Every structure is written in structure tokens, then in C-alpha cells.
Amino acid sequence: MRFLVKQLLSASLVIFFCSCDIGKDTDQLPDQTFIYVLGVAQDGGYPQAGCLKKCCIGPKNKPELRRWVSSIAIVDNAKNRCWIFDATPDFREQLQMINDVTASENPVNIAGIFLTHAHVGHYTGLAHLGLEVMGANKIPVYAMPRMMNFLTDNGPWSQLVTKKNINVELLQDGVIININDQIKITPFLVPHRDEYSETVGFHISGPNKSVLFIPDIDKWELWQKDIVAEIERNDYLFLDATFFDGTELPGRNMSQIPHPFVVESMQLFANLSIKEKQKIHFIHFNHTNPLYQPGSNARKVLNNAGFQVAEQGKIINF
Fold first, then answer.
1. Which of 49, 50, 138, 159 is the most buried (most CB within 10 A)?
2. Terminus-to-terminus CA distance in the chain, angstroms?
3. What CATH number is associated with residue 225?
4. Do 94 and 84 meet the contact criterion of CB atoms below 8 Å apart?
5. Which of 134, 100, 132, 104 is nearest to 113 (CA)?
């Protein structure tokens, strides 16, 4: 009975949150390894704490409009395990999302957590692994050198290490991690506000498709790599779309919180074919971003140009 209920929850969750990859039936999910979009919001989530403006009234009054902080996972249903990219403040809800679409009656095994950097939306969910909550046992947490030092030298994160709730595994720029015989993870440095750690994106190479995950970057022109070339050589890209344009935070100096405005990215990618543009799923939206609204002019402009908005709950079989 519990398995049947879980299967029904799984089906309803997929229908509510997303459209699956075309050509795949959700009934086949128990035997598949797939990418699962766990959240699409900037570090503060949606709605954001302290916001009483129109942009946050809707999701405060309608829970179905709420969105968790940006994260994706690789889910292996055959072995009831997952790898999560960024441990967000919404870790509890996102782990439940994974459990709701897995076939096993047992809690999903967290086989690893890959961290992009030390801003609050990307690592603070690790607290749920500690003594006060899950009391996890040696969960591999993959981090760059400065990020590793940040976790091991500062409480309360250092307690996760000393009590062996987590094992911090060292990442290196451009060095491949083989998580199984078919999937490879490669971290790569990107320019960002690195107060406490480096910032990385991740390249995920599966048996049939490849995914690029860059939720945070300052500006594309500051990166050593050519983002247009990366679009052409990958199948799916989740790219920083924190702000649609520079008008969202009146009174704030936007140079102090640099991100590629969506309008800048669209201009940079304008000469790509529709096929290439459709690979791009913008993610990591600030609560002010009009792309949250399906009927907004911003969303219409984006979709008419051939780009896509990342959808919480989207499943990508690869």
C-alpha cells in the first residue's frame, strides 16, 4: 500500500511541477537515472523574507507559487541514490521531492553533495545532516579547497566533520569525478564574489546527454571560457538569471551584486539557432525577477526568442 501511495504521489508531483523530457513516460521513472530540478530561486527563495511588495504577495498567499532555492539532483532510481548540487536552505523540502519520485519504500541514499560556493543559498542546507536533525553518516560533500577550509575551520559546519556526519572530498578545477561507470562530474571555476570560497559551475556528463549548471557568475565576459561554445557542445544548460535587467532593485548599486542580466545573455546568444537556444534554461531568479510570472512581458520576450525558464520539478532523462 505504501508503495502504491508513493507512486501516486510521484505521478502527481511530476504533473504539478513539470513536463518531463519529451519521449519519456513517467511510468518508466523507477528504472531511470535522471536530472531533477529541485529549485529555481535565488538564495532567499520565493517569496523572500522581509519582502512585502507585490512580487512576493502571490506566493505568500498561494503555496503552489512558492519556489525553492536553485538546486538540481542526479537521481538513480535503480539503486535508490542521488547526488545533489548545492545544499540550499530548502534542503528538507527538496530531499522530500526526491523521495516522492523514487521507487523504493526506503529513504533515498544521498551518495554525494556537490557545492558551488559559500553564499547562503548554496551550502547552509548542510545543517540538516547534523546531530540535531538527520544525524547523517559520512555523506560525501564535494568542495573546492577554500570551500573545504571554510567548512572544516568554522562552526557549526566543522561539527559536521568532527562528528563524521559528512566527509569533505576535495574538488579541483577541471578534474573529473566519476560517480559511477556512466556519469562524470567536472567542476570549473567561474568569476563571482568569492568572500569565503571559490565559485564553480559543474559539467555533468551522462551516457547520452550532458548538462551545464552555472547558477552564479558575475558576467559572461569575465569568464575564461566562451559560453556560446559551451552551449553548442552541451545538451542542457542551467544558467544564472538572477536579474532580468538592471531596473529591479531601485536604489541599489547593481555593480556590487553583479550577475549577467537576462537581457544581456539574450543579446549575447541572439545569433544562435532556435535549437541551440532551447538548450538554455534560465535559473536562480531573484524574487523581483518578472520571469516568475508566466504571463509577464519578460517571459513572453524570453520564450518568443526561443529560450526557456527552468521549471521546478522538471525531469531530464540522460
1. 159
2. 30
3. 3.60.15.10
4. yes
5. 134
Convert 77-130 into a string of H (helix), E (strand) and C (coil). Answer: CCCCEEEEECCCCCHHHHHHHHHHHCCCCCCCEEEEEECCCCCHHHHHHHHHHC
Look-up of cell digits 555523506: 139
Query: Looking at the predicted structure, is the pLDDT value of residue 76 above 90?
Result: yes
For 293-300, the CB contacts below 8 A with 24+ separation are 298/244, 298/262
Q: What are the distances in angstroms from CA 121 to CA 93, 132, 282?
A: 14, 20, 17
pTM: 0.91
Nearest one of 168, 92, 97 to 133, comparing CA atoms: 92
Q: Is the preceding omega at residue 145 within 30 degrees of 0, hence cis?
A: no
98: CB partners within 8 A, 6+ apart: 36, 38, 73, 75, 82, 84, 108
Report the relative pairing of strands 109-114 and 139-143 from DSSP bridges.
parallel
- What residue type is 142 in one-letter code? Y
pLDDT in tens, 8-50: 444 444 433 343 443 334 455 657 899 999 999 999 999 999 9
* Segments forming the whole domain that contains residue 16: 2-317
Number of C-beta neighbours around residue 178 at 10 A: 10
Mean pLDDT of the region 150-170: 98
Lookup: cell for 48: 523572500
pLDDT of residue 251: 76
* Total number of domains constituting the chain: 1
Apex 222 CA angle, 220 and 225, nearest 5? 70
Residue type, 35: I
> What does the alpha-carbon distance between residue 235 and residue 47 come to, in Å, rounded to a whole number?
31
Rounded CA separation 174/154 (Å): 27
pLDDT at residue 204 is higher than 50: yes
Closest among 102, 94, 92 to 130, alpha carbons compared: 92
Judged on CB neighbours under 10 Å (0-12, 13-18, 19+), 140 is middle
